[in-house]
Amino acid sequence: MSNIIPITTPLQEFNGHGGSINVVAVFPDKRRMVTGSDDKTLRIWDMKTGVVLKMMKGHRNWVSALVVSRDGQLIASGEEGGNVIVRHGETGESLAKIEVHSKCISSLDFSLDGTVLATGSYDSKMTKLWNTKTWEQQGNPIESDAFVNCVQYSPSGELLAIATDRHIEIYNSGTRKRVTSFKAHIGDNSSLAWTPDGTRLLTSGDDLDPTIREWDTITWNQVGDPWTGHTDHINAIAIHPAGTLAASASTDKRMRLWRLSDRQTIAVFKHSFEAICVTFSVDGNHILSGGGDNTISEWAVPQGTHPKTIAITTARDAYIDGDLSTDEELPTQDITMDANNHNSYAHRSKILAITTARNACIDGDLSTAEDLLTQDVNNDPNNHTSYAHRSFVMARKHDWDCALRDAMNSINIEPSLSGYISKGIALCGKGRVPDARAAFDVASMYTDQDLQILHFLLLIKVIALFNADQYDEANLLLKELTTGCPHADTRACRIVEAYLRVQFGLEALCSARHDEAAVHFTAALDSSNLPSKSDIHEIYEDLVVLFGWDLKSLWLTAHQKRCDALLLAGKLQDAVRSYRYMTDSIDETTRVICLEWFNAFTEKCSAPLLSRGDAALAASDFDRAIDLYSAVIDLDSASDVVFAKCSQAKLGKRLWEDGFLDAQKATELNPSSHVGYQLMHTALRGAQRYDEAIEAFKIMLSKLDDSPEAQTRDLRQQYVCPSEAEDAIQRAVWIELEYAPLRLLNTATGLLCDRAAQIHAFKTSAQYKELLSFTTKHSDLEMDRIKQVVAAYFRCVLLSHRWEETEALLHDIRDKDVRELNGLGGIAKLQSFCEVARNSGYRWAWMDTCCIDKKSNTELQESVNSMFVWYRHSALTIVYLSDVPPSSQPGALARSVWNQRGWTFQEFVAPKVVLFYQKDWSLYLDDRSSNHKESPAIMKELEDATGIDARSLISFRPGMSDARQRLQWASSRVTTLQEDIAYSLFGIFGVHLPVMYGEKKQNALGRLLQEIVARSGDITVLDWIGQPSEFNSCLPAYITSYATPPRTLPSLSEDEIQTTISSLRQNSMAVEFASELYDRLDNTSAARFANCRLRLPCMAFRVTEVGLSYDPSQETRYEVKADGLCDLLVTTVQPIVQFSQTRPTQQAFVLVHPWDRSLLELPDFTDLQDDTENEGDYWTPPSSPSDDSPRRSVVTHEVDDLESRALRLAVRLGQPFGAFLLARQRGGEYKRVASDRDIIAQVKDVASVRDLMDVRTIEIL
């Protein structure tokens, strides 16, 4: 072993960082390197001068990972906080910042083509891949079994190696399928590195196992012994560009340089603090390492550190290590040949009568064998046997020229059997088959006519020809040997045939001809009852010496490869049968020997089954998925994962019980896993065993909470505990019941239920338990499913009807089953209503006669104010027409008294779905559609009967708009209680007012009208004729005052307006006063109404004279003159007091033009909004046969300027208008003088705008 070179002084130090240097990488330009540190910065250095070329900030935490793309164009760095910053390799400019993990980034690596960045972290058991164009995550993460410490692409880019705390995992980078996974170190796997040719992978361990281990990337077996020397955690590994050296940095303050050929330390570089990172320069002449000393040290690679000789202790060591071509010099020891060492078979002593070299050949250590035989040749140049034997070794190494030269030297010294055999083998290797045949023929002359030797010689010829691709000739000769030689060793022939068949199979297997390979392996097994033990190896050892055959495992190889071929051919069932046949045929010792293969095969066999099962499961082909997963289970190697997937497939088929059993098996195999319980929850839920399902879900949550793996515990965050689900459902219930009546009849039980009883019924229902068992994730809380289930359960049917003499009241049904009551009068109506609701699929019903506690003022208040909302949100409103007989003809509905009642107005316009039932509870007109509001015939009939246009009947919107129109619709309706004429309209206008039964009806109506004006400023409700209200003189005493539609006044055409405007423009004074008037009116607020007092903005005209006029009709009429107005005639309800002959007074009067801001012709956006509800609460109504309801006109002309608008307003104010006659009271307020006719006034002269200038707000009592 070479002496270890201790080095303490670096060539150069790079100083500047303010913290430990954790990562270092070099650029392909050979000039620069980049480092990352605890000081949260990156620095790019000039490696020759040691100057910092650029310092880069941006990380919020210490830099933990760093990589430069292979073309040097990108730098990616990760931090403790989980963020990655990507920078331009030349400028250092930040290109992207992505949040890739929640905790420290442990490792980064670019793919070979630089299109993918792989990231690993300590926060989870996964590796994420990022597209370097979009910086979006590419596909799903690669999930591992433990925290990820290192990720690195292979030199070819085909593989991705991941070092986790538990295993080394290898993935195909294209398919992301796991190639293999193995336990590398006793503790954590801290780092890894690929050799440049990709044939070896080095891994390092932590303080529990501070070694480096070398792995063959074909077999994934460990090569040689662990590399020892470090005494603490190995933080990083780097491999020399030539692949001959490796460097490692450790917490033991040492950086070691290793030689890959003999895995020995050749130099140790000492740090003052822990060594954290290491890399080679691009040319391989220097090593760069950094660590806790805040410095990057540059070290020279010691001269003469190319692979040196090592002493081989045994030939078997070389064989185990797979070192078939090493050029290491052998120890200078005297190894002599023992020509007398032979076994009982004569042909052995004739062919290879050697000891140490023979053993080396058997063990596969051909270099040792070559060196030993070379020593023999050097010691005795005339030893023909040594030349022949060395020729065999060179043939094994496929060095055919040397093999032929040695064979010729042997024959030239002395012709012999071994000489000609070696010549024949060498010629076959060179492809000179005819010459080889001649050599074998000559060799037969030196067998001494020994049939055993001759037979064995022909077998060697068969094998040599086979190796020269002369398959047909080799098979024919073998067949002749087997059948034509009575004294032939048939067992040897069968072994050779089997071996050749195995070779055919292996070649076919390598060429992906899997079916053909399976046939060959089957033929090999059928050719002979091959023993499973290794005695054939000893018996036919010469075949091993000459050709390197592994006869020990021939039987196992044939069986195993047949299983593999069948598996790769997709014949999974045949593969499983072959596997079972093999396992049933071997003894326990062989079983132990093959345990690793058994495990690998079952994993390989399970893998495609699982893959196909997964594909079938993803495609919802549950039957095929069940068959495939069941096949894996039949291998007796199924894990809890397989049972879980099989359960999932069965659950997809709704095989709840079978799925439950598989899920239960999964929990038995892995009691700590949550997956089995999750599937049990699904199975039990599907089987409607909801209570058990909820318990299984609770156990699942406890498994997540108790999991030792952080990633699994993180899954818990997406789930909610049942109590959270209960709270969410309860909130949905309260929201739903907010729009439902306080008391409801349960149509299934016949019982009247208050809120608590309704909720209790829901919580004990199957719907609730099902919903609770389905609400498992936070996302479920946000979904509409909870709302939908709750809404469906509490769907309610409301009844609209005309009260009759006997009705079912609250005390009649409280705590009773209405189905069992004596069905007379109102009870019969109630029972029929509930039956219709129940038969229609509704659980809850409501009827106003018995579902309100009218003795409770609070409940009564809420019920009256909520009635419209209840009907609006009802799933169905049934209208019962007790006065419409069965089989009625069209028109019967229009004649029903139901149309005349006050409460039925809102009971029809509020609901979205309505059905009309006749006296016998049959559908009106036998219309069996789901919604009679969609029936044009019925809607036309109601439109004619009520005077309400069909559109409003269908899609009525509560609120203040068109208040005068709504009051007209209600003016002809009657109520039993006088106050109800106002209370029944609360919902129509969307107001919420106190309910005070016993108050005067004028007061009730006055409060409603006052609220309308107060909230909307709409003065159209003041447009009425008749008797004034005691509440306020500007309001009517009775709603019937609105029966007469507002009078339509004449108006100018647009041309006439423009003509008048042009005339006014000629009068500068008129223009000035018009502008001033416009400003004053624009700044005048709308009417306000409170405490029975109306504050009315208006233009006042002083009354100068009022004269009594007598009329033959006996009506009281007055001739009224006012400043600026044309004389007019007023007909009053009662005589004006001061003109009574008995009580003359000097009371002052004014005629007022109530100010309506719409005259400004400004855009009005209130029509785009609803006063009380959202647009989402409405639906598009069906077409109606009548859709000519009045609409508010929209001014489409353009107004040029303020002056034009002012003049336009003046012209409009000059048109006839509805005026109020007001009488001044002693306190300065006014009262309206009610009239029997509309008071229509008009200014004398539009040009006299000054007469309109008395704009004020008058308080009216």
TrEMBL record:
Record's keyword annotation contains Repeat: yes
Span of domain Heterokaryon incompatibility: 798-884
Pfam families, per the entry: HET, WD40
Residue segments, region Disordered: 1171-1193
Keyword Iron-sulfur: no
InterPro entries: HET, Quinoprotein_ADH-like_sf, TPR-like_helical_dom_sf, WD40/YVTN_repeat-like_dom_sf, WD40_repeat_CS, WD40_rpt
SUPFAM superfamilies the UniProt entry points to: Quinoprotein alcohol dehydrogenase-like (SSF50998), TPR-like (SSF48452)
CDD domains listed in its UniProt record: WD40
Keywords of the record: Repeat, WD repeat
WD repeats: from-to residues: 14-55, 227-268, 268-309
Protein name stated in the entry: Heterokaryon incompatibility domain-containing protein
